[in-house]
Amino acid sequence: MIRAWLAHLAAVVVIAAACVQPGASPAGEGQPTAAAGVFPKEVAIGAVYPLTGALAPTGVDLKNGIDLAVELINSGRSDIDLPLLKDGGGLRNLGGAKLKVIFADSAGDPAKGQSETERLITSDKVAVMTGAFQSAVTATASQAAERLQVPFVNAESSSPTLVARDFKWFFRSTPDDSMFAENFFQFLDDAAKRFPGQVAKKVVILHTDDLFGSDVNKFVRQFAEKYTYEVVGSVGYKLTAPDLTSEIQRLKASAAPILIEASYLADATLAIRTLKQQDVNFQGVLAMDAGFVDTKFIPNVGKDAEYMLTREVWAKDLGTRKPIVKQVNDLFRSKYGTDMNGSSARAFTGIFVIADAINRARSIDPVKIQEALKQTNIPAPQIVMPWDGIQFDARGQNTKGRGIMVQIQGGEYVTVWPLELASKPLIWPMPEWTKR
Amino acid sequence: MEIVAQTVASGVLLGLILALSAAGLTLIWGVMDIVNFAHGDFLMLGMYASFFAWAVLGLDPLLALPGVVAALGLFGVVVYLGVIRPVLRGSVLAQIFATFGLGILLRGVAQFVFTADYRQIGDTMATGSFAVGPVHLGLPQTIAALGALIVSGLLFALLDRTTVGTALRATAEDRSAAELMGIDTRRMFALAWAVGAGCVGAAAGLLAIYFPIFPDVGAVFGLLAFVTVALGGFGSVGGAMLAGVLIGVVTSVAGLIFDPAYKFTVAYLLYLVVLVIRPQGLLGRA
């Protein structure tokens, strides 16, 4: 009798305890990982990039940037003034949890980028996605993240259409091509002040016929009008073209003194070779980064790359004004044998944006990370970029980004614009091929 | 007018290279009815061979050319003995997938071993350009095109003027009859792969003078080679030459007339039209 009563009592106590338990935990901290200091040992981030295929060299640059960022965050560095590095390793607010980036290969294919993103989110349970370099792949990959409600932080795709989609889970730290296209004309205006009468107001555009190239064409045309420049022609071409003679002939026929170009590496190399062989000259060639800032661009093109201008988001010589740029680039160089470039520096920065948000979210709950991303406010001194900082607007676009113009002088990228960041003076116009 | 002349000239130069690479493909098809889908990747291997001969041994790509041709020819025989001969017993589909799979394998191995970096052979004997009237021609492209003409000439001579060539053509014509005449058709098959792959090697060695080299470079020329072969007529080396030049000129001129982004569309359209009217291709046997 007594034993039966005791058994009932025990059952009641157990049930009561079970009922009380949820209320006993701190209000609002329903996420199991956040309760009583139980944090995951690792926070998984998914990264989808073109690791094979035509864009694989850029994929390697991007991966190197990410790997270095993860290594720094996980081990901590008290001597480098980047976010989180003085916390002694890992994410402080998550009990020192380490970042782990799981890479997937898009092979440069939008469909594959999307399916790999789905796989990373559903099978590998990544807390945040990043990627995918090419705007066309970022477009589809971020669609998958939006549908599955996981934040997608893009650090290096510059198509303006990406933030015009009213996505709630998409954040982009890099400035976009519309900002960069505007930079071209601000640069030309400044160049005209410095070289009066030597900077023409007529441009011709050479671009790939994919999303990247078509957007560049569109925005250059748009800002040309605003800054009263005349676009006398646009020449689009296929990425796999084995010969660019007819394209270059059209540029020549346009008789425009300034060329604005949007190309990847192999096609940029081919275009320059053809320009030289056919003795087609311009006052200036202004490129929209991509192939022109690839680490293999100067080694492959050699002397013919001299005097080319490209807009950039990053240059090694920024280190003369920003010590952390030199610190990080020295690390990168000792690890991978090459200097950082715009791709690796932006991917590197993207990981800090993600880590900072997860740390402030104190959780790997996507909703909390999304909320934290909206509150992102990383000051200018704490990034290796020439930006005024990182802060996202309602579209998810960083409003504090800006580009720079670099010129290839003596086999190096030299910052020549904005003037206050220039490490050497601009050379204008570029000498004709036969006079070099 | 000057622009048209320039464009046509460049188109012809490109076309000759296309023709040489397609000649190798069409020869293998003609002799043994197998389409080598790894064709573009053979080209890629040949370009890397040229690159490393230049980067490691310091050999100018033109001097390295015979070596690259021999290496690719040998590779062709190895592929025939190791992959093609075993799958000949299988279905046609098995043969298609064998070369297709081989191509993907080669590309993957190339990326693993050579990395995905774009390589470029620096200054060579063939650097620079010259002008013929108003037309500027790149020395590398011109030498590559001349090389393509010479190698194609040698190929014609081999097929037309030698006993071995006659035996090859006999095998292509009628395998059983050739066997009855005492021709060892298996050796002819191996020879076709050696010569076919050697032609690709020649095209690769010539392209390497001026074109960037990377694991996927075969994709740029592979599809064009298939179109060239089909347009010229399967198995016809002369047809491949004609079609190569035609495609080179048509793409260049189309790039001038229409938006250059569509220049290949015009070439493929031409290809479809020709095949509808003449399914056997320009110089193919009906």
Q: Please name the fourth-level CATH homologous superfamily of the largest domain in chain A.
A: Response regulator
- The total of beta strands of chain A comes to 14
Q: What is the helical fraction of chain B, as a range of percent?
A: over 70%
Structural class of chain A: alpha/beta
DSSP helix fraction of chain A:
40-55%
User: If you compute it from the alpha carbons, what radius of gyration of chain B comes out, rounded to the nearest whole angstrom?
Assistant: 19 Å
Oligomer: heterodimer
Low-confidence stretches of chain B: none
Spatial strand arrangement across the major sheet of chain A: 7-6-8-9-10-13-14
Low-confidence stretches of chain A: 9-36
User: How does the major sheet of chain B shape up?
Assistant: 2 strands, antiparallel
Coarse shape of chain B:
globular
In terms of structural class, how would the helical and strand content of chain B be classed? mainly alpha
The main pleated sheet of chain A reads as:
7 strands, mixed
Helix/strand order of chain B, N-terminal first: HHHHEEHHHHHHH
Tally of alpha and pi helices of chain B? 11
Give Rg of chain A in angstroms: 25 Å
Strand content of chain A: 15-25%
Summarize the structure in words.
The complex is a heterodimer of chains A (436) and B (286). Chain A is an alpha/beta fold. Chain A folds into 2 domains: 42-175 and 320-390, Response regulator (Rossmann fold); 178-312 and 404-435, Rossmann fold (3-Layer(aba) Sandwich), CATH 3.40.50. Chain A is built from 12 helices and 14 strands. In chain A, the strands form 3 sheets. Chain A has a 7-stranded mixed β-sheet with strand order 7-6-8-9-10-13-14, with helices on both faces. In chain A, strands 2-1-3-4-5 form a 5-stranded parallel β-sheet, with helices on both faces. In chain A, strands 11-12 form a two-stranded antiparallel ribbon. In chain A, helix 3 runs parallel beside helix 4 (135-148). By secondary structure, chain B is mainly alpha-helical. Chain B contains 11 helices and 2 strands; from the N terminus they run ααααββααααααα. In chain B, helix 2 runs antiparallel to helix 3 and helix 2 crosses helix 9. Chain B is 74% helix and 3% strand. The radius of gyration of chain B is 19 Å and the shape is globular. The N and C termini of chain B lie far apart (39 Å). Chain B has a domain at 2-107 and 136-217. Chain B has helices at residues 2-32, 39-55, 61-87, 92-114, 139-161, 163-173, 175-180, 185-207, 217-232, 237-257, 263-277; strands spanning 129-132, 135-138. Chain B has a two-stranded antiparallel ribbon. Chain A binds chain B through residues 52-54, 56-57, 59-60, 209, 235-238, 240-247, 249-250, 252-253, 265-266, 269-270, 273-274, 276-279, 294, 296, 299-302, and chain B through 3, 6-7, 10-11, 14, 108, 111, 115-120, 122-123, 129, 136-138, 141, 210-212, 214-216, 219-221, 224, 248, 251-256, 259-261, 263-264.
